[in-house]
Amino acid sequence: MTDAHSSDWSYIPELANVDVNRFAIAVAGLDGQVHVAGDAARPFSIQSVSKVFTLTLALGKLGDTMWSRVGREPSGNAFNSIVQLEQEKGRPRNPFINAGAITVADLILAGHEPREAIGEIVRFVRFLADDDTIRIDERVAHSELATGDRNASLAHFMRSFGRLDNPVDHVLGVYFHHCALAVTCRQLAVAGQYLAAGGVSPKTGARVISAERARRINAVMLTCGHYDGSGEFAYRVGLPGKSGVGGAILAVAPGKASIAVWSPGLDPVGNSKLGAEALEMLTHRTGWSVFGA
Ligand code: GLU
């Protein structure tokens, strides 16, 4: 079931300028080797893939009590649906739909200034990617701020149920900025490696989270990472994955590799068409699907 979300992705005007024919893939193996093809050094807007990293950060800060604020069930609804939120009294179904990620931004904010929370998220993604050049594309952040009425509605709605602790404009400032991180496929694949490697970043040897938490984040990615296309992605690709409307997908082959793909042409639910196809071919050829070869 889908709510009336737009299939016209130009609702973030700055993203509509990107050539839909572009494609890139990066496979970061646990041996430290990164294999790339296509435009793998070209930065793109991470959008909702950032929700994996903010979830990781929030779990690190609050532990499992975080789950009292947001569920971990697939929504079966559009990424920006308000219908279910009303039925469930402002508690988002999972951390990957917009309402859930806005709640996670509220938890990371925790009374601090938005710029402090944004800085913390940027530092965390740089640490994961082992790359200090990663930045936020301010034009994308402001483009979304200017047109983000649907996200503002979700946030006000949750606040009306007493579900946000911080002012709506602060929470949205954090949310839009982490969605506007600009990364390359190579950076994204490396940043996601801790999820494939039991919580340890193979490049730096640093433990990011426990193996148990990595396994659980992967479970939520598998069931909820592609909005109301999550079942289809599990069926076709068979890997935990998180998509974003910038055209990126981060997929995790546990014990094997972290894979980032990017191609801005989206399907009607907001997932990269070519990206999913490439991942389907990859798992078909490698036998990496978590469901068996
Ligand atoms: N920043 C986007 C929004 O809130 C994220 C959506 C997505 O990537 O799926 O609309």
CATH homologous superfamily, by name?
DD-peptidase/beta-lactamase superfamily
Instruction: Give the integer mean of the pLDDT values.
Output: 94
Strand order of the largest sheet: 2-1-8-7-6
Overall structural class, as computed from helix and strand content, comes to alpha+beta
- Rg, nearest Å: 17 Å
CATH T-level topology: Beta-lactamase
Strand content: 5-15%
CATH architecture, by name, is: 3-Layer(aba) Sandwich
CATH top level? Alpha Beta
Q: Level of helix content? A: 40-55%
Ligands: glutamic acid
- The 3D shape can be described as globular
Which helices and strands, and how do they pair?
Elements: E1 24-29, E2 34-38, E3 44-45, H1 50-62, H2 83-87, H3 98-109, H4 114-129, E4 135-136, H5 138-147, H6 149-160, H7 168-179, E5 181-183, H8 185-191, H9 193-196, H10 211-224, H11 230-236, E6 241-243, E7 248-253, E8 257-262, H12 273-286
Antiparallel strand pairs: 1-2, 1-8, 3-5, 4-5, 6-7, 7-8
The structure holds glutamic acid.
The site of glutamic acid has 11 residues, from loops.
Written description of the protein model:
By secondary structure, the protein is of the alpha+beta class. It has one domain (8-284): 3-Layer(aba) Sandwich (Beta-lactamase), CATH 3.40.710. The chain is built from twelve helices and eight strands. The strands form two sheets. A five-stranded antiparallel sheet has the order 2-1-8-7-6, sandwiched between helices. Strands 3-5-4 form a three-stranded antiparallel sheet. The two termini are 30 Å apart.
